[in-house]
Structure formats: C-alpha cells, structure tokens
Design goal:
2 domains, mainly alpha
C-alpha cells in the first residue's frame, strides 16, 4: 500500500502561508531561500539566535556588507545566449510564446496607427 498523507499536511500548510503572497514570488533564488527557511521551521531546526550569530559572522567577515551587489538579488534578464527573458519562473516555451505574442501585438498596433 502507498500513501502520500505524510506529505499532504505540510504542503497544505505551505499553501496557506504562501497563497496570499503568491503573486509576488517572481525571483527564483529568493523563493528557493524562502522555501529552505520554511522547511527548517517545519522541521523545527531553526533558531533565531543561530541565525543572528551566522549573519553577524558573515557580515564581520565581509566588513559589514554582503558580497553581492543589490542587482545580483534579481533574476537574470538574459540567458547564456543573450536572449532576453520575460520572467525566470516561466518555462522557456512559455517565455517564447509570450515574447512572440507581445511582438505580434506591437506589430498590429503599429499597422493600425498607419
């Protein structure tokens, strides 16, 4: 016999936490970090004092500043080939379809304007 019930309750709780804010999760790296923190909280291995200690040690090591720039927190706007991406959480096929649809709309609009 096989059952998914051990996974269903944590997923239900996760959905309840994230659903009201789902429209803002557009950055894959930050979303993955958030999910890792939620997982630690669910497993009850998170500890505020440990987080504070780790953050302080990291900042002390880097002279009070994170190593990355502010822009590095954003998803890449282009892929390795230099093609512009619409949103990193969309599949490549969806991005291509959306880009093509946007180009068709722009072309139709320019034709209408004469």
């Amino acid at each position: 016999m096989y059952s998914n019930s051990a996974v269903e309750q944590p997923l239900r709780e996760l959905r309840l936490m994230l659903r009201p804010r789902a429209f803002v999760f557009r950055n894959r790296a930050r979303l993955n970090q958030l999910l890792a923190l939620i997982r630690q909280a669910y497993l009850r291995v998170d500890n505020v004092a440990d987080y504070a200690t780790d953050i302080r040690a990291y900042l002390d090591l880097h002279h009070g500043h994170p190593v990355r720039t502010y822009r590095q927190a954003y998803d890449a706007r282009t892929n390795e080939a230099g093609n512009t991406l619409l949103a990193s959480l969309w599949s490549a096929e969806a991005q291509i379809s959306m880009r093509d649809a946007r180009q068709r709309r722009q072309l139709a609009k320019s034709i209408q304007q004469g």
